[in-house]
């Protein structure tokens, strides 16, 4: 076998690959994507079959352990996660220190890093039991602190979890319930949100997952690694695109600009304006998740009796792009974020919570990838090379 690292040292061979367009950072057995064919599989199972037949917590198990759980395993797993939904009372004070207008993604990354300070017993990287416990704690508690971030921005009291509810039902209640009235979960909304979380659950070496793996490769604990992943997801070119899509659609509606002139501005790259929710580094075909999201968006809006002109604008934009050579020749198609915002809005989430929902969905994938890094004997600390292009040596002025 060829020792690439030693060969590189000997020959001085370095590849310069901005954005890692052609460079694999790892081998992985978790998720498979064929971007040209529009194929996504978790542990070998096509995303369409998973979305039609599974639940988010079952998918989390699949990503983490590589196989589907038995009915008993799934039941025990769900119960164990439920038992861990309470967060330490003191952690709530963290939110008091933050301004109410703070972005919920900033609140979430802070809160998840802070969670680690309470659970140092589960922060050991090489202890299997500790990692299991940290996995359960993160899956159980991250939705709770995410809902706290939402409540903080509304100025409403934080609710305690209700463990008689399912994972997603609990999350909806924590966001939309109040201390004053009982909250009734709409099963169609709960099912659609569960499906959305499944669709976001992993996506191989995207920017946030690569961040989690890079931080994990330093043997940093899992809470800090996931917090770093949340920060990477925040950006509008990554998970933040779902919020940016809604802003773009609302901007078109409010300005009265036609879809056609907006598309012309995108094509002319006017002020760097992009069609948010379009294009993908890996998919050069329709993102298979976008198709499924579109179906769910239609179902949820129908169930809730909402007619949102933003959905009409989104569909018109998609149609215009599919018929336009600029987008066709660059293989730009809707990505997972294009239709999610319209649905989250109909469910009652403010746009600033959209990327938080993405983070909750991506959590099992991040954990599975972190665990893979920390169990793969081939793992080395991530440390890219650079090509230095700065000043040659010069003398510091004598003073
Ligand atoms: N609108 C208009 N033009 C676009 C778009 C877009 N959304 N995306 C790419 N292009 C154009 C580029 O300007 C470039 O054109 P050029 O060849 O004339 O210079 C060409 O298509 C290739 O684009 P790159 O930027 O080189 O593609 P890259 O793989 O680096 O970027 C990215 C991928 C970041 C997703 C990009 O398509 C984008 O910015 N999309 C909008 C933001 C978005 O939706 N992000 C979410 C991605 S999915 C996710 O993270 C969940």
Automatic annotation (TrEMBL):
Catalytic activity reported: oxaloacetate + acetyl-CoA + H2O = citrate + CoA + H(+)
Keyword Transport among UniProt keywords: no
Alphabetical keyword list: Acyltransferase, Transferase, Tricarboxylic acid cycle
GO MF annotations in UniProt: citrate synthase activity
Annotated pathway: Carbohydrate metabolism; tricarboxylic acid cycle; isocitrate from oxaloacetate: step 1/2
The organism's place on the tree of life at top rank: Bacteria
Alphabetized InterPro entries for the sequence: Citrate_synth-like_lrg_a-sub, Citrate_synth-like_sm_a-sub, Citrate_synthase, Citrate_synthase_AS, Citrate_synthase_bac-typ, Citrate_synthase_sf, Citrate_synthase_typ-I
Pfam families in UniProt: Citrate_synt
Family statement: Belongs to the citrate synthase family.
Protein name: Citrate synthase
